[in-house]
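[User] At your convenience, examine this fold.
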Amino acid sequence: MTAVDERPITRAAKTFEDLDVPEGFKAELLRGDIVMMAGPDRVHNRIVQTVQDQIPHDRWDRLQTQDIAIPNEESEPQPDLVVLERGAAEGPGRLIPAPAVTLVLEVVSRTSGDRDYGEKCSMYAAGRVPAYLIIDPMEQLCMLLTEPAGEGESADYQVERITDFGDSVPLDMLGIKLDTSEFETLPAVRRRRRR
């Protein structure tokens, strides 16, 4: 049985599967709630592209708009970038099992901060995703979370490393140091705190 097979099949999951998302929007299933948001802005997309370009494609799949399945969760988040070793998830399909993923990236927007720093943190930790990178263009920082532990909503990452834009972020799990010097910024909003 795979992690995709272990997910609960609920009315929300079935509704999400059949959802017709309007062009220019994206939808995610987050702990039983269907969350729809407008597409990202150019600053967001350029940050994702800059990160993707630095990850060697000969060893890693670097996938955007890829849903992942969290075992034992009614969640199908769509991180801004999913990184997994080539060959870790072969064949067709909309979902990649979280245990196959090496790193997920979320770029914080004005409306996603609480989800990115809170709910998604516990979801990715519950799915045992080894590394979760949050890039916040409003706070001009990168937060790398590693060593997931716990179950369900109480799951969390045990190690947190914060790096300011302009400094490099060691992504040892990928064998690179991420150059953040080209990351663009957005006007600051109130600081969001991880639990």
